[in-house]
Amino acid sequence: MQTIKSYEEFLNIIKAEMSVVIAKTKSCVVCKPISEKLQAFMIDYPQIPVFQVYLEDVEMFQGQQLVFTVPTIIVYSNEKEILRESRFIDFDKLSRLFNLYF
User: Are strands 2-3 and 50-54 parallel, antiparallel or unpaired?
Assistant: First the structure.
């Protein structure tokens, strides 16, 4: 999982056909296990890139993407948000979405 270092980098990432971004903070105790579960889950979808963004490092991301709680997983397709899951992540919903595309 690659780490997004700037908002400009994020804007380039979401131009892809599909990408997944997990927003988290360094002090969040729930974020680490959810990130690990997301990485394990995404093994079944190697064609979809996964990125993480720390809100402390890319402060603009939180305001521009309206992230009010962590962890938040956002799926983008061609610069459009198509799914957002926050706090309680429904991996079945992610699976159904990915199976529609791939």
Answer: parallel
The predicted pLDDT at position 101 comes to 83
Nearest one of 65, 51, 1, 43 to 21, comparing CA atoms: 51
* pTM recorded for the entire structure: 0.93
Domain boundaries 2-101, corresponding CATH code: 3.40.30.10
Burial of 12 (0-12, 13-18, 19+ CB in 10 A): exposed
**Per-residue tokens: 33:** 């296990």
Residue 53 half-sphere exposure, CB side, CA atoms within 13 Å? 26
Cis peptide before 33 (omega within 30 of 0): no
Q: What is the pLDDT of residues 41-94, one digit of tens each?
A: 999 999 999 999 999 999 999 999 999 999 999 999 999 999 999 999 999 999
**Contacts for 40 with CB less than 8 Å, ≥ 6 apart:** none
Q: What angle do CA 74, 67, 15 make, to 5 degrees?
A: 40
